[in-house]
Amino acid sequence: xxxxxxxxxxxxxxxxxxxxxxxxxxxxxxxxxxxxxxxxxxxxxxxxxxxxxxxxxxxxxxxxxxxxxxxxxxxxxxxxxxxxxxxxxxxxxxxxxxxxxxxxxxxxxxxxxxxxxxxxxxxxxxxxxxxxxxxxxxxxxxxxxxxxxxxxxxxxxxxxxxxxxxxxxxxxxxxxxxxxxxxxxxxxxxxxxxxxxxxxxxxxxxxxxxxxxxxxxxxxxxxxxxxxxxxxxxxxxxxxxxxxxxxxxxxxxxxxxxxxxxxxxxxxxxxxxxxxxxxxxxxxxxxxxxxxxxxxxxxxxxxxxxxx
Length: 308
Prior knowledge:
By secondary structure, this protein is α/β, with parallel strands linked by helices. It has helices at about 15-30, 65-75, 130, 155-165, 185-195, 285-305; strands spanning about 5-15, 35, 80-85, 90, 95-100, 105-110, 115, 135, 150, 170-175, 195-200, 205-210, 215-220, 225-230, 235, 240, 270-275. The strands form 4 sheets. Strands 1, 2, 3, 4, 5, 6 and 17 form a 7-stranded mixed β-sheet that branches. The chain is elongated. It starts with a strand and ends with a helix.
């Protein structure tokens, strides 16, 4: 049986950086706010950042987990408005309500800040072959340095990992489906100059072979041609996926599944806004998510004030 709670001014789905930032600004401008988060702690994707964070003007953080702790301290002021371990299971963006644990919560405005998630290749399970397959080489760099490594992906992250591994003595095969790298021009130029990197354009991973440890990667082209590579490790750095499954068919998404917004972070649905990495064309940085959260709150206020 479905129950209903009293209406709030704004309901926020997701307590990552953008969601918490939006909620704090809503609290500051005195909007009745509720935030729903699947995890037991706020912070979203922050724990997936293994390196130091230096581009947030409030301070330097050792890694994403350290920043998550600071975010959690700031979010404490939200009190019961922050509903942790309460995953939203259904939404109606037209009627503007969300449902969790059999209870529907209606709001005058919604803000979607659900972020993105990892893609896992079926043929390359994270941690397989005794850890020879990884999606976060930064966490155990020394285990891959100096070995024959296949890096999957053609963007900035994959290309930078390939460069670092090559400069540390690894022989690298950089594998990507596109006919050209999509990384920044300056990074692509460095790839071309690095003799230890073999750029394999137009290939994708079909399977991995080995026993206790990885021994071989099998690649496939669109025309069915196959290539077998002797390798000691595989590093996967492919695009993340927007978490928009709950919203599909209810608002405009781009080809990647990210939410299309206007200059005010408004979606194609009246009274529904989005912020952070889930937005189409998002700049995946903590500082950008912080700013967008505040801007989304401002847009919500403008929307509510403009209602008859």
